[in-house]
Amino acid sequence: MQTLQKEANGEIKTSVDRINAIAREIATLTEQINTLENYGPRANDLRDQRNNLLDELSGFVEIEVVEQPPADGVGFSQYMIYINDSLLLSRDYVRELRYEPRSFKKNINDTEGLYDLRWSDGDKFNTANIEYTGSLQALFTMRDGNNMEALKGDLTSITTSPEGKQILEMTNTNINDPNVLNMPPTDGIVTIGGSEYVYESFEVTVGADGKYTYTFTMKRQMTAQQISHIDSLIAKGTAVTAGTNVDFKGIPFVMNQLNEFVRTFSENFNDQHKAGYDFEGLAGLEFFNAKVPMSGTNYEFNDQNGFVSVPTVANAGGMMVGSYYHMTCLNFYVSEEIDKDPRKIAMSDSADAGHGNHENVNKLSNIKDMHDMFIHGAPATFLQALVSVVAGEGSKAQTFAQTQKYVSLSVENRRLEISGADKDEEGEDLIRFQSLLKNQFKVLSVMNEILNKLINDTGVG
After folding, report:
1. What is the CA radius of gyration of the chain?
2. Is 94 among the domain residues?
3. How far is CA 126 from the centre of its chain?
4. What is the pLDDT of residue 459?
5. What is the spatial distance between Cα 120 and Cα 126, in angstroms, rounded to a whole number?
6. What pLDDT is recorded for position 277?
7. Secondary element (H or E) of residue 452
8. 150 near 78, Cβ under 8 Å?
9. Is residue 130, in this structure, part of any structural domain at all?
10. What is the mean pLDDT of the chain?
11. Residue 452: inside a domain, yes or no?
12. Terminus of the chain with fewer CB atoms < 10 Å: N or C?
């Protein structure tokens, strides 16, 4: 999935380069058209070239073209192109797009260096509105679509740590389960009142009612004006979002679903495995685990009282104490100790039952049939539902693409009916015009003979 995300990101870069090139070509043609038409007839050939470029541009983005003749009939016409409701070109001025690799992530499994777009004057280019059309928007929705599943809640306070960093507190959140939480542990963003702030880390505490409180430590120190603005938003009850909501089941959505499956299945399997005993009669270990990014060691999973996004506390065995949040579809694996020594598989349900006891293995096998593990039911049902969703979205996309292809062909055929030329008809017309021209020459020849006769033979004149 990350490979697909990288490919979409690369196509975004290629598309932006082509959009800028088209805009420059249109600007050059517009200048030539204005110059020619200011001193002569309509420049139809150049206009046709410009229209062809507009057709190509409309395949990338939603466009609006505005052409206004001079108010007093003197001077050049105004010619403007808007894409996604923002100005791209005004006569010979091109406002180019720039792609910038992110220094942060919006989803825990996002690949590095995903592009955001800005205009050459610094304004942000809106890529989150799925109502826009064109292949560029399709690439963004596929790359960033998370089905509106980002963390949301109420911003309740902003304080400053002794180190001078601002700390934001979020309550009444829509996610109170680490297994479905998919914001990055560090260098993520919090969106408050339309402004984005990068956080350094976050901490989760669990209340007696099971509700989560999220505390974000900001990466950069805020100005007094920013703090005052956030205080005013807190007073208004402004909601806050960690990440960005994109209403499409794209690559992040699929990876988030796989994260939920891996975490939930691993948690249930590990709980049962730890209830059993291995070959030596010792209590079972966690069968599935994940690697700590910095050290490459295993976690000890414990999130009953909350967790921190960047673990710093180790247990007596040197393992980092973390949460199943830290396990993803990209980093989970069989625990290192069990992988090296299969005798540590907890097969027995009793420490002194002997080597012939395999009761815990039977219980582990039954986990695959736990119908209350997921909302969709058993693990196999969850995966079947995910495959069905992906297949359904793919089918809808193909149907929509085919419909748009037919619409495009219909428009092109209509254009050819108006401005195109049929070779057979043109050939017939050419023969007919040649015949008419010959007849006109014959009429002139006869008239010349009549005049000659009148002048020379009758003595007229």
Report:
1. 35
2. yes
3. 11
4. 58
5. 14
6. 94
7. helix 423-458
8. no
9. yes
10. 88
11. no
12. C
* More confidently predicted of 37 and 140: 140
Q: For the chain, how many structural domains are there in total?
A: 3
Same-domain pairing of 257 and 331: yes
Residue 30: phi and psi, rounded to 5, are -65, -40
At which of 195, 219, 245 does a domain end?
245
* 288-309 per-position pLDDT tens digit: 999 887 777 788 888 777 888 9
Q: Are residues 222 and 203 in the same domain?
A: yes
Could you count the other beta carbons within 10 Å of the beta carbon of residue 425? 9
Structural domain boundaries, residue 11: 2-98+107-143
Final residue in a domain of this structure, among 245, 264, 283: 245
Say yes or no: 29 and 129 in one domain.
yes
Q: Provide the terminal-to-terminal Cα distance of the chain, rounded to the nearest Å.
A: 98
Distance of CA 39 to the CA centre of its chain: 48
Q: pTM to 2 decimals?
A: 0.83
Instruction: Characterize 365-378 residue by residue with b for buried, 16 or more Cβ atoms within 10 angstroms of its Cβ, and e for exposed.
Output: eebeeeeebbeeeb
Rounded Cα distance, 315 and 290, in Å: 16
Residue 435 resides in a domain: no
pLDDT category of residue 407 using cuts at 50, 70 and 90: confident
Residue 400's pLDDT band (cuts 50, 70, 90): confident
CB 155 within 8 A of CB 240: yes
Same domain as 120, residue 7: yes
DSSP state of 329: T
Hunting for tokens 């995300």 — which residue is that?
Answer: 5
Q: Please list, in sequence order, all residues whose beta carbon lies within 8 angstroms of the beta carbon of residue 302, skipping any fewer than 6 positions away.
A: 321, 322, 323
